[in-house]
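Apologies for my clumsy wording, but can you show me some protein sequence, whichever is easiest, together with the matching C-alpha cells, please?
=====
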Amino acid sequence: MLEFFSSLYPRPQVGALVKTLKQLLDNLGRFQDTAVQIDHLREAARQMQDAGGVETDTLLAMGALIGSLFGQQQQARIGFAANFADFDSKQNRLVFRNLFAPLAGKGS
C-alpha cells in the first residue's frame, strides 16, 4: 500500500521507505521460498522411496539439491538481521512517524 499511495507523499522519503521495505520482503521471500522447496523435495523423495524403484543417484541428487537450498536459506537467515536493521533504523522510524502520525489522530 505504501508503494501504491506513494504519490500522495514526498517522493524521496517514501521512495527510501519502499526500497528498504522491498529489501526486507525480498529477504523474507527467499527464506520462505527455500523452505517450501526443501519441504517439497523431501516429500517427493519420501514418496519416490515408498513407491520403490527409485535410483540411489536420484535420491542423492535430491539430497544435494536440498543441501544447496538449505545453504541459501541460511544465507537469507543471516541477511535478515541487516535487512531488518536497515528497515527499522531510527531514520526510517522518524520518517514513518512524520509521514503517518498526523493521519493517526484523524478519526473516521
User: Anything to note?
Assistant: Helices lie at 11-51, 56-87, 90-104. The CA atoms of residues 41 and 77 lie 20 Å apart. The longest helix spans residues 11-51. Residues 24-82 form one domain.
